[in-house]
Design a protein that fits this description.
By secondary structure, this protein is an alpha+beta fold. The chain has one domain (about 25-75). The protein has helices spanning about 10-20, 40-55, 70-75, and strands spanning about 30-35, 60-65. Strand 1 (about 30-35), helix 2 (about 40-55) and strand 2 form a beta-alpha-beta unit. The relative contact order is 0.18.
Length: about 80
Amino acid sequence: VKQERFSPQSNQVRERYRKELKLPEDATVLIYCAELIKNKNQTFLLHAMKKLVDQGENLYCVLVGIDYTKGEMVEYIQ
């Protein structure tokens, strides 16, 4: 793993990505990088995040990876 590739970015880079992804400045953002497949159980993560959001937390989850669920993950999110 190239640590410099995954190190914290400058505020300018963060601001650019937040603007591009329409993420509020004051939100907590979780970035999850992995293949989207059933055996990784990302729906558990999304269900837990929904509970926190329903309780008033300002959370966003950015899923990065190829969707091997044939659209089921996108359908679950919607």
